[in-house]
């Protein structure tokens, strides 16, 4: 075969392949997309967002419908929209061949519900940020006695970067105590409520019984851990012999000691 003929044939072949690829891409881009495959990761005992609810939100926002084609599916816009939802921590949206696409969502984890007098309050999540309440309440600690807290002043991250605010705010203490309780199987099962007292600081309210656990302040993670370690020793080494009915209150505010007030 002559060289020029061989070159021509290869050129024609390459052009044909290119045409087929372009035609295939055009055909793929005009395919209708399917409903997304969703992976919604929530923490046990919490239900903030279902697949049906998320799909409904996307439809109402005009970001996806049954007749949406591959080339009109705005992945970035969908991702940005979902990220702005109050309950969402992180999201990843990606597309596959054949009009298939997926949504992977990590839901935020509330650790305490602040309940000021006179309104329904809000959550604080495990990163110290405020969360609006959802239709399905989370089973977390309830914090009372904090009637000066609102959604506008509850950003823990903002407070810890401002020395003048952190010295007068109770939010950092609340966050440290709640985070510890939430991450402890033992104490999470034991306590249901935190209450702030202007004289004694924070008090823990047990699930069973009417004892008062005076915690005081929580100015560092180390202080919180030491106080809870003392309380655990009290529960494991004293209560089994003495019994809860003998104690009216337990005070953890003093270094290296627990003060138990008997009835």
Shape: elongated
The helix fraction, in percent, is 25-40%
Calculate Rg over CA atoms.
28 Å
How far is the N terminus from the C terminus?
109 Å
Average pLDDT reading: 81
Low-confidence stretches: 22-28, 164-168
Strand order of the largest sheet: 6-5-4-7-8-9-10-11-12
Q: How does the major sheet shape up?
A: 9 strands, mixed
Beta-strand content bin = 15-25%
Count of DSSP strands: 12
Order of helices and strands: HEHHEEEEEEHHHHEEEHHEE
What this model shows, in words?
With 263 residues, this protein is α/β, with parallel strands linked by helices. Helices cover 36% and strands 24% of the residues. The chain has helices at residues 3-29, 51-60, 75-83, 156-160, 163-166, 171-182, 185-190, 221-237, 239-242, and strands spanning 37-41, 88-95, 101-107, 110-114, 122-125, 130-131, 141-144, 191-197, 201-206, 212-216, 247-251, 259-262. The protein has a nine-stranded mixed β-sheet with strand order 6-5-4-7-8-9-10-11-12. It is elongated.
Give a brief outline of the structure.
The chain is elongated and about 75 Å long. It has a nine-stranded mixed beta sheet. It has nine helices and twelve strands.
């Amino acid at each position: 075969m002559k060289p020029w003929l061989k070159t021509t044939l290869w050129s024609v072949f390459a052009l044909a392949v290119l045409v087929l690829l372009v035609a295939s891409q055009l055909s793929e881009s005009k395919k209708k997309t399917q409903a997304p495959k969703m992976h919604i990761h929530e923490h046990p005992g919490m239900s903030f967002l279902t697949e049906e609810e998320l799909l409904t939100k996307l439809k109402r926002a005009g970001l996806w419908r049954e007749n949406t084609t591959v080339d009109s599916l705005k992945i970035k816009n969908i991702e940005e929209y979902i990220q702005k939802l109050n309950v969402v921590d992180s999201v990843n949206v990606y597309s596959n061949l054949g009009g298939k696409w997926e949504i992977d969502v990590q839901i935020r984890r509330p650790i305490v519900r602040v309940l000021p007098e006179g309104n329904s309050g809000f959550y604080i999540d495990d990163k110290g940020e405020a969360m609006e309440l959802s239709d399905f309440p989370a089973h977390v600690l309830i914090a009372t006695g904090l009637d000066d807290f609102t959604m506008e002043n509850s950003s823990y991250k903002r407070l810890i970067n401002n020395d003048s605010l952190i010295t007068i705010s109770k939010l950092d203490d609340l966050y440290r105590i709640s985070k510890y309780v939430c991450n402890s199987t033992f104490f999470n099962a034991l306590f249901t409520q935190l209450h702030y007292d202007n004289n004694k600081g924070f008090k823990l309210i047990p699930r069973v019984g009417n004892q008062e656990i005076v915690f005081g302040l929580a100015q560092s993670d180390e202080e919180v851990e030491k106080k809870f370690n003392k309380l655990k020793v009290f529960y494991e080494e004293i209560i089994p012999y003495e019994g809860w009915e003998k104690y009216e209150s337990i005070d953890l505010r003093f270094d290296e000691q627990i003060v138990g007030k008997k009835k």
